[in-house]
Every structure is written in C-alpha cells, then in structure tokens.
Amino acid sequence: MSDAQYTLPKTNSGPWNTRPFHRQWLMRQANNLFDFFEAASLNPKGGFFELDDAGKPLDGANSTRQIHGTTRMVHCAAIGSLIGRPGSGEILDHGMQYIWNQHRDTRRGGYVWSLDNGGVKDGSKQAYGHAFVLLAASSAKLVGHPLADQMLADVTEVINTRFWDASRGAVKDEYTSDWSKLLPYRGQNANMHMTEALMAAFEATGNKDYLTKAEAIAKLIIAEHAASLGYRVAEHFDENWVLDKNYLGNEMFRPAGTTPGHWLEWARLLIQLWVLGEKRLHWLTDAARHLFRAAIDLGWDKVHGGFFYTLDWDNKPVMREKLWWPLAEGIGAASFLTSYDRDDYFQIWYRKLWDFADNHMIDHARGGWLSELKEDLTPTSRLFVGKPDIYHALQACLIPLYPANGSLTKGIIEADHTAKIAH
C-alpha cells in the first residue's frame, strides 16, 4: 500500500509531537546537537570553526568563516538561550561580536561574505548573507543582546537601499565588495532565506514592512513561478526574473535544475507566513500542501529512501546524493502541516522522515548528523565535507515541540509565556 493511501488507525493516530516520549526524544536529540557543535565550533580568534565528522576544526587554525555559518550559529545560540541551555549566551555574544566587528564593512557598508585570520577573504556583498545577518540580529534581540538593535537597524537599511527591488517584490542577489557592480543573476534561494529573516524581524520588532516584503517575495517565487511549474520551485533567473533552465552554478549554493529540499523549506515558511499575516492569504496554505506533496512525489527515492539533492526539468534525479538539510526541512514542514491539516498524509511522512533520520542520518556514535549519503545511503563527502552546521537539524528537532504560530523563537517565547500563566 502506498504512503498516499495509508491511513493511521485510531489506536495510533495522535500526532507524535503530543506524546511525552517523542517530546523527550526530540529534546535529547537537540541537546546532543548543542553538545557536538557549541564548544567545538568556537574559534578563539573570532567566529566559528567548521567541523569534520569527529567534531574537530576542518581547516585548522586559519579556518575560513563564511557569514552564513557565523550568523546561523548566533541564531541557534539564541534558541539555546531561550530554552535555557547553559553556555548559549557566551556563544551568542562571541558570534555577534564577530559579525559586528569583522563581517561588517565599516567603510563601504554591508557585510562581507567570508574572512580568515588575515582579514577579508571574499568581500562580495550577497543578499543570502545579509538575510542571515537579519535573522541573527532578530533572534539576538529576543534574548536582549546589546548589539541586536543597532545590527538590526544597520542590516535593514542595507537591505532596503541595496538589495530590495520594489518593482519585483524581491531582493537582488550579489554586488562586488565596493557595490560598484551588480551581478545579473537572480535566485530564489537568497529570497527564500530573506523571507525567513523578514518574518523573524517582524516578530522581533512588530514592524509590518518586514512582513509585507516577505509576502511579496512569496508571491513572486511561489504564486507566480512555482505554481505554474507544478509546484516545482524554480531556482535561477536572469536580471528580469526570466527563468533560466540552463543555468549551471555552484553545486552547493546554486545547483542546476530544481532542489526538492527548497520546496519543503518553502512549505513550512508559507504556513508560517499565513499565520503571521493573520491567516488572510489563503493561497499560502494550499501552496504549502502542493509543495510538500510534490517534493515527496518527485524528490523522494522510492527504492532507497531519502531526498535526491537535485532534479532536472524532466523530474529525473541529477545529483542523486541525499543531504541532511532537505530531510530536516521535510520534518519541519510535516510538523507545521500536521498542526493545521488533519490529513494523515502529513503525519505519516513526519514519522517516516524521522525513521529515516534516526536510521541513516543521525551519527549516534560521534554526534551531529551526517551531511551526505550516496544514493544507496552509504556516507560520502563529494559535496559537503564534515558536519557543516547545527541550524537545519536543530530546528527539525525543536520545531515540533512548540506552537506552529510563527518562527521557532516565537513559538518558544509563547510556550514559556503560557507556562508562566499556568503557574
């Protein structure tokens, strides 16, 4: 019997995230991730190390620090602080200082892509990176970090004046370090993460301009483009937002074809956007369901399990590796959809994805999640070396534990407020 036809019996129909054992298991997995990443990642010269499979720095003492790595660690440390994880405050402050004092370009404005111990390594100004600065500042504001407000104001001004294209309702992708040249490429990935960050900024400040921008991006990327493509999310466009199906880019950040993991990520973000927008944009929930089902129907390996990394435009797998982050995003999306849809399909897949994670992706011996598996599920490192970050896996573990009323940080705060009232 196929998963689409299968229904849960009444004896086993309750969502897993309501069950005490599952909730304890999720928090234990989250704590294991913190144990693996936090102390080992901290670079005494600023920023954070990338870690190998055993939890050791990948590049030694002069490790390159890319802005998304720094900011994601800050975001996760803020989550740790909100749930009461000792040590998270020091990690958060360490990262915030590095963003403000090193990634920030004090002379020309904006935030540079990467640094090492010698200074700037890649000075390009990328919307993808600035989205994560906005996310980090928003999360840091929720825990009261003293740099949060000025960083939030600074990065918001940069996004508004440099990246935001009001005529398209989306952000432009990349400038040279001195802002003198704007590359013609336009991509959904930077815009997807900008949507995530804009929602976090709205939650942190109450400023509806952030939410309006997030809704505009979702309309362009999903309602205008993905919906017309059978809810396959188009990744790559030219400067006029014309789809470029022949684009060949970076395998890690801009792979050719389509990436089912992003369909899953958008599914969760759309439900989040619907809730934050007072549930007035009904197309968002319908699109979220279609995106999730399309990712399962086209992206899930029916033989071995796991999501293929990329598909071509004939829906055939191209990069057949199974990465950790699409699996994590699928879990988060299934959790959000289960909160608002009674169709057993989403709960069935929530369980199936955690089964796969526990059996194949979680590294029970050394900690963290394996970043990459071959098609037959044996570990490999063709695309990603080591264990790149805590961000995706941590959110997969914690999202199901908190109300699906916005971002994870908002859910934690609301749950804490409810607990205080109950006492």
Please describe the topology of this protein.
Elements: H1 20-41, E1 65-66, H2 67-83, H3 88-103, E2 114-116, E3 119-122, E4 125-126, H4 127-142, H5 148-163, E5 164-165, E6 170-171, E7 174-175, E8 186-187, H6 188-205, H7 208-226, E9 236-237, H8 260-276, H9 283-299, E10 322-323, H10 324-340, H11 344-361, E11 372-373, H12 391-398, H13 408-422
Antiparallel strand pairs: 1-2, 2-3, 4-7, 5-6, 8-9, 10-11
Helix pairs in contact: 1-12, 2-3, 2-4, 2-13, 4-5, 4-6, 6-7, 6-8, 7-8, 8-9, 8-10, 10-11, 10-12
Describe the structure.
Belongs to the N-acylglucosamine 2-epimerase family. It comes from Devosia neptuniae. The chain has one domain (13-422): Glycosyltransferase, CATH 1.50.10. Helices cover 51% and strands 6% of the residues. The protein has helices at residues 20-41, 67-83, 88-103, 127-142, 148-163, 188-205, 208-226, 260-276, 283-299, 324-340, 344-361, 391-398, 408-422; strands at 65-66, 114-116, 119-122, 125-126, 164-165, 170-171, 174-175, 186-187, 236-237, 322-323, 372-373. It has a 3-stranded antiparallel beta sheet. A hairpin with a 2-residue loop joins β2 (114-116) and β3. The relative contact order is 0.12.
